[in-house]
């Protein structure tokens, strides 16, 4: 079943580039565990798990999810201080 990795990729593509990795992991896990497996797995969920993960991320972390970096901004991959 390749739907779970596909849902994760779709969810990551919807998020801004500056989002912390912890939010990505939490919303992906929620989308897969709650959105897909809680409702019985493939083809039996009432709404798309990617949509559920995105809504949970926007409701839980609105400032990080709704703020996008300016174009051509250099983003750090980790939280290191230079």
What does the secondary structure layout of this molecule look like, with pairings?
Blueprint: H1 3-14, H2 21-37, H3 49-60, H4 62-65
Helix pairs in contact: 1-2, 1-3, 2-3
List the keywords.
mainly alpha, elongated
Question: Can you put this structure into words, describing what you see?
Answer:
The longest helix is centred in the middle third of the chain and has 17 residues. The termini are far apart. The protein has 4 helices and no strands. α1 runs parallel beside α3 and α2 crosses α3. It has 82 residues and is an all-alpha fold. Helix content is 55%, strand content 0%.
Distance between the termini: 43 Å
Radius of gyration: 14 Å
Number of strands: 0
Biggest β-sheet strands, sense, barrel: none
Structure class:
mainly alpha
* Average pLDDT number: 86
Helical residue percent band? 40-55%
Runs in which pLDDT lies below 50 for 5 or more consecutive residues are none
N-to-C SSE string, H for helix and E for strand:
HHHH
How would the global form be characterised? elongated
Tell me the fraction of residues in β-strands, as a range: under 5%
Total of DSSP H or I helical runs spanning 4+ residues: 4
Quickly describe the structure.
The chain has four helices and no strands. The chain has 82 residues and is mainly α.
């Amino acid at each position: 079943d390749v739907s779970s990795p596909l849902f994760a990729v779709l969810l990551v593509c919807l998020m801004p580039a500056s989002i912390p990795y912890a939010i990505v992991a939490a919303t992906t896990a929620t989308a897969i565990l709650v959105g897909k497996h809680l409702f019985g797995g493939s083809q039996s969920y009432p709404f798309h798990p990617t949509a559920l993960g995105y809504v949970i991320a926007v409701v839980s972390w609105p400032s990080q999810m709704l703020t996008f970096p300016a174009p051509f901004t250099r983003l750090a991959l980790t939280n290191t201080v230079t």
